[in-house]
Amino acid sequence: MGVITGIMLPLRLLLLQRHRKQISFEFLKDGKSFFAIPFSEFRADLLAWAFNGLAVAGFMVARYGIPLETAFKLVIGFVVPGLFTGMLNFLEMESAVMRFLGKEQGTVKVRPDLRLSVARKVTFLLGSVMTVSAVVIGFMLLDDVRYLVKNRATLGAEHFHSIFYEVGFVIVVMLVFSITIIGRFSRNLRELFHLQIQTLEEVGNGSYDKRVPIVSSDEFGIIASQTNDMISGLRERDFIRETFGRYVPREISELILSGKIPLDGELRNVTVLFCDIRKFTSFVESRRPQQVVKRINQYFTEMTKAIQNHGGFVLQFIGDEIEAVFGAPVASENHPEMAVRAAMEMRERLAQLNAGWESEGDEPFRHGIGITTGEVLAGNIGSPDRHSYLMVGDAVNLAARIQEMTKEFRCDILVSGYTCDALTNGFNMEHAGKVRVRGMELETDLYEVV
């Protein structure tokens, strides 16, 4: 018996080390085999102890002629520790797999079929412990009952006490094994929850590069896989939101994405601003495309900052022209004043840009800004395939015409009488005249901001 056990244990340890080495990047490519490592561990333990028990029992039958019932009990005596050892090694290897996969952030894809669900795993562990305990205690009680019946005339109280202590000792041993197994199982659950919660906390902080480690093929693996799909969806949503915000002001993009801008439009009282670069066509013709793009991007960047600093929103860039609105989509009461102050800051920023360009030997930009206040139709306008947040109405057309009139009045900022009448704070303005706007049945006073 000692020789067989002495050979079996070293072989089992070698197999255990081999299985531990299988937890590697190469073996990870096969998710099915990888998740089977803990099961292989359990199977190897059970088979090793069962084979050892059969070998010892066969030897005892052949050599000493022990009864088959005794030989069967001997086999059970080997299978029981093999079963317990197998369950402990199963849980230990499962923990090792979790720790390794925890570093891989969801590399393995869980199979759609559950190899062993959590409910089945718990039932297997508890059922095995209870069954083994019942079998062992049952055999002991059966032998003790037979002994009592056979020797009842000669037994004293001490014999009954020894039987009681023997059964109690076996029950305690079984309880210790059971508590150990349940403790290991609980530890694995804690490790699993820790890995998932840690990743979800990082995702909650906006780190969408993280993934919940898929460390089992049970319900937790499926939950982790679906959570990873959700994280990918959140990352894609934020990417769309961020990219969309580069073309549409953030406030507008947020309202559009949340569906708060009516698709059928709404009437809003706003202040519209148009800005156009003078002689831009000749500037483009005399320079390389790369120079034009760099220059216009610098200009648009500074003008957009000035508009946004005063609560305005750039609706669109039309060539070298900027269309902006104040008072929509986010309503504000003092949008006329915001627009005029934005135009004045645009004037200052252009002066700073020109100073830099002239110091480099390049010619400066000049622009004209037209501003008016009025009612427009604002909404998400376009085709079923493409929408833009736009303004439609006489105020939009009037602002565009006023911007063109800055050429005639040889100034950079012109404000309509509608905007001037709506201003509550004093600005340094000069009356430029009363004009009828070309193409419109409108007559308005124009004021130059000086």
Describe, in short, the structure shown.
This protein is of the alpha+beta class and 450 residues long. The protein is 62% helix and 14% strand. The chain has 2 domains: 2-240, no CATH class; 257-449, Nucleotide cyclase, GGDEF domain (Alpha-Beta Plaits), CATH 3.30.70.
The structure class reads alpha+beta
Instruction: Report strand %.
Output: 5-15%
Q: How many helix segments?
A: 13
The largest pleated sheet is described as: 8 strands, mixed
Radius of gyration, in Å, reads 42 Å
Report the uncertain regions.
Answer: none
Basic shape: rod-shaped
The run of helices and strands is HHHHHHHHEHHEEHEEHEHEE
Calculate the mean pLDDT score and round it.
79
Question: N- to C-terminal separation?
Answer: 108 Å
Number of spatially distinct domains: 2
Fraction of residues in helix: 55-70%
Give the tally of β-strands: 8
